[in-house]
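Quick one:
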Amino acid sequence: MPPLADVANVALPLQIGTVHVTPDGLLGIHESPRPSNQRFQLDDLLYHVTLSPETTDEGSFTRFRIWAELGYVPYTAQAPEQRRGVLSVLRAARGLERACFVVDPSQKILVIGETISAEPMTVDSMVYEVLLFVQEARPYVRILADYL
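Output:
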């Protein structure tokens, strides 16, 4: 499972038991992230942003998370060409540095990103993280929009 091993090397909201490989060979997530109070809209998608200060034995850090719901994977019987297109785009999006496209059990497609900062995040650093995430994910999101 090399793709899963690659995903494990980046800081995403993933824990043991939350990610699985779907029958289509894509990464799936068992449950969607909780909604956030910080949101923005871009290209008719609602993005959720969470900043959480956390403390461990190693010290304090800030966890930045961002995600958006993109739509649902079409059923094969309903739209086989669209399903193939969606699945091929999701496969092509593997290995991105900041964004991870996942499919939950209800076949909902999510794009998720997470960054951990040793310093408290300012508004400037949060906007910077949002821009890096959107810059990486947006081309795939736009292609997926053609199929959804």
